[in-house]
Records
---
Amino acid sequence: MVSGTSGRVFVTRPIPDVGLDFLRAAGAHVEVWGGAGDAPAHHDLAQWLRGCDVLLSLLTERIDATLLEGAPHLRGIANYAVGHDNIELPTATRLGIPVSNTPDVLTESTADLTWALLLGAARRVVEADRYMRLGNYRLWGPKLLLGEDVSPGCEGATKQLGIIGFGRIGQAVARRAQGFSMRVVAHHPSAPERVERSGLAAAVSLEQLLATSDFVSLHVPLTETTRHLIGAAELGAMRSSAVLVNTSRGAVVDEKALVEALASGDIAAAGLDVYEHEPAMATGLAELPNTVLLPHIGSASRGTRDAMARIAATNAVAMLRGEAAPQCINPEIYDSAAFDARIRRLQPGEPRLTT
Ligand code: DGY
């Protein structure tokens, strides 16, 4: 256990106690925003950022350039997520602000949930559950709630899983596919050799993957390159029996185009954990029976969320001390004049202007 660290850590919404306890045991003064259902507004964040040493943020808080520029004393941002598209990283880097994330610990839980969505959408589990609850089940029948095979099934036809983005989570999803005797292909343009080297999948182009896969699963971070990676043209290129699964970021898919593709039968079904304008959904999505819709719970196992809290807190304590955060995503700043100047400017815990 660390101790002897002073300074203020502001936490934008409650995280598991294990993280808060770690921060307090390290000597930090910890403030947590309101309740679980209440997110700080931009002006609240602006005020907080003027007054804290380290911000522990959630993926729901957009930390833009204005906020970062208005936080001259900030020593770092520890994001409670592996994704960090909520933080304007180039500005943070330019200003010498370290930013960290929580990789690795959520890989397996997110891969598990990807498979829950894949199986649920393919075999219409949610529709079937609703059918039962509504009292519609009166007589078993050979055509009742027919879905798609995931394993080769009785016909021995191997199914293909196409994985877009072959990082940690994409690979964990691929490993699980072996249990279903699937053929796995993957598209990872920045390092296609990683796909082949894994021995888990064959590297293919995006076009090939979309045209030949029975299941398509998205595992890319949200960047300007991946925004709307899957739009009307890509959905149109998929098989009409295909199932799309997204546990990455909502805006990787053009959600309006997805609603149209699902309604017109361009693709068979979708399993979604994330949404383009979260928590809102595109008009019509909720009414489509061929969807399984979850509220961004990819990493929501007790163990994972505790581990994320521990990692975020560990990074925050390192930032308070002016040390390199273990999961820093812009580590180049540690050699920068901007970081040196920022860290020297004020010792943690000194009085701040908070209004
Ligand atoms: C992440 O960490 O980026 C997930 O979306 C939530 O755990």
Note: The chain has two domains: 8-105+301-346, 107-293.
---
Amino acid sequence: MRPHLFNPMMPTSLQISHAADILEKGGLVAFPTETVYGLGADAENPAAVASIYATKGRPANHPVIVHLSPEADLSYWAKDIPDEAHKLIAAFWPGPLTLILKRADHIPDAVSGGQDTIGIRCPSHPVAQALLRSFKGGQGGIAAPSANKFGRVSPTTAQHVRDEFIHELKPNGLVKMVLAGEQSEVGIESTIVDLSRLAAHGPVLLRPGHITSGQLAAVLGRKLTAPATGHETPRASGTLEAHYAPHTPLVVIQPAQLDPVLGQLQRANRTTALLTYATPPRNDCVSQIDLSEQATEYAYELYASLRKLDMAAADVILVVAPPDNADWHGVHDRLKRAAHDSLGVLARLIK
Ligand code: TXA
Ligand code: MG
């Protein structure tokens, strides 16, 4: 992860306490985390949580992650906390890891979409931590999904959030404040591990991310399983098929397909915005962003790049698939969801 440098954009302590005050009164505040920016509300105020759903245009039965300060009392939020949770917390909190645990009985089910579990994360970002320490004396929980409209690309800068909620940020709008920080240094959403049904399923990796399944398995001393399909799987919006999508159709291709596919698109008079890694500039596309061949660097720039390529208003965003190994699991997962129906899109464009 990148170190946090001094940044004049960082909020002052006065702005932090103002933001905490807004949250305590039931308002929404967007804030930076090390993964992506979140749209926060008081997790114990169901009306405030409902306004997150309204703002995002997200179905109310999708659970949201509750963010806690490092000093918060986890047993206030979750019950029957297994040893596995303590091990993962010792290794990875604060940081980009969300744990699904059994929800304590008095916690409103608005945050978990009516399920008996709760998703909890302790972010490492200094602004997120300052906000959590100031909110309800450091013992509150901030429910926060990524600060984007439902199904769209997650924001990694304060400007992305302002672009996303341009209407909701008006004086009478639902989003009262955007706390700014640097570009989120991880760049993709937290890894999610479900520990709520250990006896039946073992630890389940619900969403891959910066913390890899190999790192998790090393701490737990056992492999994680993939989510089972079927009604027992908890609803997780990050696990829907089409998600994290730009407006322009996005197609993922293998490196060897780049020349032939660009040729076909040109012959069909289609314009292309191109996302590559370790590839020299090309002149047969309207826009190209070339990213690192290192997974963490690539992830850091991924969402900002998709937003920029989307603005080129090309007929298609073509993404050259990154290497196929465990380090890239989180990136592949996001690309797959953003692409959705690659083959069908391509066939329609070049027919
Ligand atoms: O990195 C992140 O996790 C960011 C930052 C803001 O912390 N947040 C984020 O939130 O990605 P969101 O709402 O966009 O995605 C949260 C994911 C969803 O897939 C949601 O369904 C899942 O977490 N989730 C939350 N609580 C859950 C629960 N009780 N059971 C199963 N999945 C849960
Ligand atoms: Mg999201």
Note: The chain has two domains: 13-220, 250-350.
